[in-house]
């Protein structure tokens, strides 16, 4: 989460009380769900302790875009919001693009680390095909010029063996926000892909 670099009221998460925080799309893990959960852990309830201004760009892509984050960053620079939630890699990109002029923002806080990309198959998948698919993914090298664009599409430098423990923070975030109901149906307000 970043704030303007100029002296101001936001020096810690608690300083966001009564302020406006810009986020990405409603279904963006990195630019909405996880940062808002992070602030909950600091005792700040979205919509109660601070105003959330969401930028719903690419809803339905489950955060696999940067449009809402870019608009949140623009709102921060325009002085329309007090903080913006952006992925660290996108913060660097927005600085390179000039959306966030160099030196214009500072880091206020970061979420815990989390996993963000996976391949999931059903239990009826052919085990030999599954093993081949896993072998192909794990063999992709960022050093290979032919593979690099494919990994870049996912924001990855490598694929790793599957695990589920890196999703605990996201699980907490979707539970606290009521993003899904008990059957896994999306129930978040204003979600319409």
Protein architecture, described:
The protein has helices spanning 29-41, 67-77, 88-97, 127-139, 148-154, 168-177; strands at 2-4, 20-23, 51-54, 83-84, 105-107. The chain is 33% helix and 8% strand. It is globular, with a radius of gyration of 18 Å. β2 (20-23), α1 (29-41) and β3 (51-54) form a beta-alpha-beta unit. The strands form 2 sheets. A 3-stranded parallel β-sheet has the order 3-2-4. The protein has a two-stranded antiparallel ribbon with strand order 1-5. The protein is of the alpha/beta class and 193 residues long. The longest helix is centred in the first third of the chain and has 13 residues, at 29-41.
Topology:
Blueprint: E1 2-4, E2 20-23, H1 29-41, E3 51-54, H2 67-77, E4 83-84, H3 88-97, E5 105-107, H4 127-139, H5 148-154, H6 168-177
Parallel strand pairs: 2-3, 2-4
Antiparallel strand pairs: 1-5
Helix pairs in contact: 1-6
Q: Tell me the strand order in the biggest sheet.
A: 3-2-4
Number of strands: 5
Shape from CA axes?
Answer: globular
Described by strand count, sense and barrel closure, the largest sheet is: 3 strands, parallel
Order of helices and strands: EEHEHEHEHHH
Beta-strand percent range: 5-15%
End-to-end C-alpha gap: 26 Å
């Amino acid at each position: 989460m970043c704030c303007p670099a100029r002296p101001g009221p936001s020096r810690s998460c608690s300083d966001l009380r009564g302020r406006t925080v810009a986020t990405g799309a409603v279904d963006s893990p990195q630019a909405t769900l996880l940062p808002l959960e992070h602030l909950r852990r600091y005792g700040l309830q979205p919509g109660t302790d601070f105003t959330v201004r969401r930028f719903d760009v690419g809803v339905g892509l489950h955060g696999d875009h940067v449009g809402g984050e870019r608009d949140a960053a623009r709102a921060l620079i325009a002085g329309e919001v007090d903080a913006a939630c952006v992925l660290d890699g996108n913060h660097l990109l927005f600085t390179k693009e000039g959306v966030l002029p160099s030196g214009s923002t500072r880091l206020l806080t970061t979420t815990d680390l989390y996993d963000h990309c996976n391949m999931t198959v059903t239990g009826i998948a052919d085990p030999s095909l599954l093993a081949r698919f896993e072998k192909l993914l794990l063999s992709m090298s960022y050093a290979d010029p032919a593979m690099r664009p494919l990994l870049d599409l996912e924001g990855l430098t490598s694929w790793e063996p599957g695990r589920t423990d890196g999703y605990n923070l996201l699980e907490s975030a979707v539970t606290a926000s009521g993003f899904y109901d008990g059957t896994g149906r999306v129930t978040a307000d204003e979600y319409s892909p």
